[in-house]
Amino acid sequence: MENLLKDFEVPHKNPSEEALQRWRKAVSIVKNPRRRFRMVADLVKRSEAEKKKRSIQEKIRVALYVNKAALQFIDAAIAVAAAGGLPAEHKLSDDVRQAGFGIEPDKLASVARDHDIKALRANGGVEGIARQLSVSLKNGIHESSIPTRQKIYGCNRYTEKPPRSFWMFVWEALQDITLIILMVCAVVSIGVGIATEGWPKGMYDGLGIILSIFLVVIVTAISDYRQSLQFRDLDQEKKKISIQVLRDGRTKEVSIYDLVIGDIVQLSTGDIVPTDGIYISGYSLVLDESSLSGESETVNIDDQKPFLLSGTKVQDGSGRMLVTAVGMKTEWGKLMETLNEGGVDETPLQVKLNGVATIIGKIGLGFAVLTFLVLTVRFLVEKAVHHEFTHWSSHDAFTLLDYFAIAVTIIVVAVPEGLPLAVTLSLAFAMKKLMHDRALVRHLSACETMGSASCICTDKTGTLTTSHMVVDKIWICGKAKAINNNNSEGILGLEISECALSFLLQVIFQNTGCEISKDEDGQMKILGTPTEKALLEFGLLLGGDFDAQRKEFQILKVEPFSSVRKKMSLLVALPEGGFRAFCKGASEIVLKMCDKVVDDSGKPVHLSEEQTRNISDVINGFASEALRTLCLAFKDQDDISEENSIPDFGYTLVAIVGIKDPVRPGVRNAVQTCLEAGITVRMVTGDNINTAKAIAKECGILTEDGLAIEAPDFRGKTSEEMREIIPKIQVMARSLPLDKHTLVTNLRNMFGEVVAVTGDGTNDAPALHEADIGLAMGKSGTEVARENADVIIMDDDFTTIVNVAKWGRAVYKNIQKFVQFQLTVNVVALVINFVSACISGSAPLTAVQLLWVNMIMDTLGALALATEPPVDELMKRPPVGRGESFITRAMWRNIFGQSIYQLAVLAVLNFDGQLLLGLNGSDATKVVNTLIFNSFVFCQVFNEINSRDIEKINVFRGMFDSWIFLVVIVSTVTFQIIIVEFLGTFASTVPLSWQLWLLSVLIGAVSMPVAVVLKCIPVQRATAKHHDGYYALPAGPELA
């Protein structure tokens, strides 16, 4: 089978257009293209959208980088008309004037969009624009004005396709070619039947087909519509992006879709600019505009270049901007409209099952044609033998029409349209459940791929630890002391000079990225990263006044913390003259920058080599207790360079703090679960190696034979050395984002690993993109990281990552179960009808019955088997390797074994049923055919239960936890009783005695002991050794 599916293989991430085109061309038999390919990318629309996107980008590039004479002429005219910056001369509409604003929406939007510096100056700069928008740059807008602003200037929402109604799915289900042919056959059947047998008897057969088609269409549409609702919920969840704004004098988080014109937005590294706007203030603000312009060069934003465009990314620094255009008035809004076109890439399993459906469809089509030919030829031969070849009646036409309907229905059953759609159903179900479990799957294929993950490269802070940080120890004035957080008066537990305390508070309060605001209840709230918040809370406990400290010094320049610099620096002007630089960051890095230290009296003194060694021992001591260590330092300067550059040497060491970040509850068990599942866990962190090792041991990641390495050492290894050490690496400390990227690339390329990697920073984007599964942190992660990720871990918890892996395995296993079940039905339905047609000249299963069987095995079968929740046993076997066969030998064993049993029983009933059961009379044939139909359906019911586990004997474990499965089974049996007992007129059945009902159930139930026997037949299983020494779990008695 795998050889036949070569054209149906696509990479799970970033597939090429060639691969996508190749499998589309290979699909030849499709009953309903609109339904089959609904969750498949439309390459034509995607190409058109890409052209439109490039056109918009070119327009933006021209606006940003080309100074055309025409534009200059227009700008000059505006400047003249403005008459020295009097915006009141612009004509205002009545709506704008009555709302109290002084600038038209289109005019305002064009200022930032066209980078029109002259128009900005003509309107009085950012202060003048703010006045015209009735907004205070200090306090922001009043929340009461939001409705008016939305009415005049619009909402920050983009044009989206309207959701499809239920009736659209009904119409889509009706596009099935075979169903259309059957409907035509049914109408003709009704016409011929009424003409030959009269009203109403003549219409029963045709009406039965129409009612069956109606039932199939409604059930299919309901299933598809429910899927669409699940995906709609997921899309809404993806759009929950928050940003900090200033409103009514308070800093608060709001959804980017609730931003309005005049809002003052706080931007920091890793944010995506949510609207067009004008720069107010900030430090070292650098934007990446490549998403808009296609240009890779970054742009420095300042008073000279004050324009920010929606959709650009904050590469570095921080700042505040005034919102001037929202929604479709921004170029990003127009680009977002193009992103809705073309759909999402299909997953590898969807493509592979499209291939399986195509191959089986060809076989089914062949069987259908053969069945029709055999039935027709037999019919014609019989007419010729009875010398009736020249005499044709409407009854003969009715018989041929019935043969044609049976052949078409065989195609309905034989072409398993439900296979690729079952993947979508299973993924939609898994993604919905994961969303409740705090994991947001952004790309369908990620949920699927996560089940094959063999390695997880995880961050430490926030993922393995809680991120609820507190300063636990401090070294200051030559003494190390544990912090008494319960006693605010004696928090330090030691006496230090006023001067030393002043330096400590300055370096904490000045050099911070935190802000303090008050919530609606007037309670103080600290906004910032967990590390920054821990330091600031410590400063407040020491009795410091944050606002007073901030007002005392004028900040000149800020270099925010980044995973590359591993430090944060700040330059201020002192009130009495001169300048002071502050620095905090990774202990060993900042310590090397220091040549002085604050002594007991609070005075800077020379830092000797012996003191440096002692301080290094203190750092290592803190780190070995799993504390995150930071050095705090400052440097005084008489003058500075013109660029306000912050020095990198000559600092005075004030203190070393050890910050406690406890390991999350359950992480150790989650790591153990991963190891049992054949998933290697590697910690990649920017922390000190001793801190990293202590945490890794506590989590169970670092073992006795494992390797903990510092990134600079790793970086210096040759390719051969890397090949040797990478399997042993369990901890990488002091890593840069590039090191994470290198590790991920080598794990994938050298060892064929399926790698999941976590990331939270802007610089993690390349590693997230390179990994098989990129996992971004929902709480601590930047918007840039989330945009590049496949899954967003909403609670930042490692246990949630393991849960995603478990659901990924469940999806893969569920689809395998469904495929096994459906192929068994396919084989039996095809063979029994074909053989019967060849031997007896009639098909035991009618069109209506086959349509019901099709619904059992397609929509209802997918609902029952593809939506089963994961079980713990899934995490006690190795992951599915790259290129491993999807339809395993165990599945083929079960398919053929069950098919042989069912065919044998049904063949005996078909050819000797009347004799064995002692049936005679005019309705004997109908009773036998009804018994065959009933037994066949019960075989599928019990085989559905058998398919719950491909290898284990106990198929009842967890069955009563899956309510969907139980509902499907009960519904199938109930409706089967109704069809046989009450709808015989339409379904060509007759009511059965209780003995025959019991026989039908017993025939079906025997398939369960048959399944037990089959599962005891050994099939060859690969027991490949994992590269890090892990062996696949052996098959054995525990499989039961």
UniProtKB/TrEMBL annotation:
It catalyses: Ca(2+)(in) + ATP + H2O = Ca(2+)(out) + ADP + phosphate + H(+). Its EC number is 7.2.2.10. Gene3D superfamilies: 1.20.5.170, Calcium-transporting ATPase, cytoplasmic domain N (3.40.1110.10), Calcium-transporting ATPase, cytoplasmic transduction domain A (2.70.150.10), Calcium-transporting ATPase, transmembrane domain (1.20.1110.10), HAD superfamily/HAD-like (3.40.50.1000). Keywords: ATP-binding, Calcium, Calcium transport, Calmodulin-binding, Ion transport, Magnesium, Membrane, Metal-binding, Nucleotide-binding, Translocase, Transmembrane, Transmembrane helix, Transport. It is a multi-pass membrane protein. Residues 116-194 form the Cation-transporting P-type ATPase N-terminal domain. InterPro entries: ATPase_P-typ_cation-transptr_C, ATPase_P-typ_cation-transptr_N, ATPase_P-typ_cyto_dom_N, ATPase_P-typ_P_site, ATPase_P-typ_TM_dom_sf, ATPase_P-typ_transduc_dom_A_sf, ATPase_P-type_domA, Ca_ATPase_N_dom. It is an enzyme of class 7 (translocase). It is found in: Membrane. Belongs to the cation transport ATPase (P-type) (TC 3.A.3) family. Type IIB subfamily. This is Calcium-transporting ATPase. It comes from Hevea brasiliensis.
